């Protein structure tokens, strides 16, 4: 699933490409009766409403909140997109061919270029909100603070993490109600850098270690953005190009390989923790 760096990379790309453009048409081949999708474009009835509301609207701005992309339109409407496990945007002119056969949603703009949403597993969410209340809706109102925000200090970090005393540190880092945007890949990389075992209960993580995790969180997420995200799986940027963070993994999916920490001598192990895979060094992560 795209995490904060991938969603931020996409958001920055969209901001450069589509702000100021006007929506001329929208299309989807999604068609579900799943009640969980009743307020998403995958539902034909909602799509009819969505299409009516967005046609003729201009893109005013694009922002990110956690793993969500918000495309703000004129007349105070906002398209909210969560890419889920396999979704990504493409911008330009693409054909639904063997490479891009998973395109299921398209916006056509007044410059005749198009914004495509490719989603192999069709788990992605696209809905429409009122801009003024978007952050108060069920989609966004229970999300923790942004870890790269200027207001996100070590004090704030500790207060958030320590709310889950009994939780395992990896699971707590991934809890979107605690901190926004961190998932499986970056939690592994953060804890490797901080030298903390992913299974350690929060109540047994010392103050010094919390400071190391805080520092590693900011450094790792910034590095992910600098490398254009992680494309070990399906993620691509809006130009169809892969990110390069996967070339710099220290621990994620390196099971059985030697730890890259100098003079460590450890081996990367994999373990399922609360239903999610965790990768860690068996020596320096205590």
The count of strands amounts to 10
If you consult CATH, what is the topology of the largest domain?
Answer: N-terminal domain of MutM-like DNA repair proteins
Classified by CATH, the class of the largest domain is: Alpha Beta
CATH homologous superfamily name of the largest domain?
Answer: MutM-like, N-terminal
In percent terms, what proportion of residues is strand?
A: 15-25%
Question: What structural class do helix, strand and pairing data support?
Answer: alpha+beta
Strand order of the largest sheet: 1-6-7-5
| Radius of gyration (Å) | 20 Å
| Total individual domains | 2
Alpha carbon gap, first and last residue: 27 Å
Morphology:
elongated
Helix percentage range: 10-25%
Low-confidence segments: none
Tally the helices: what do you get? 6
What does the main sheet amount to? 4 strands, antiparallel
CATH architecture of the largest domain: Alpha-Beta Barrel
SSE order, one letter for each helix or strand: HEHEEEEEEEHHHHEE
Instruction: Provide the residue-averaged pLDDT.
Output: 96
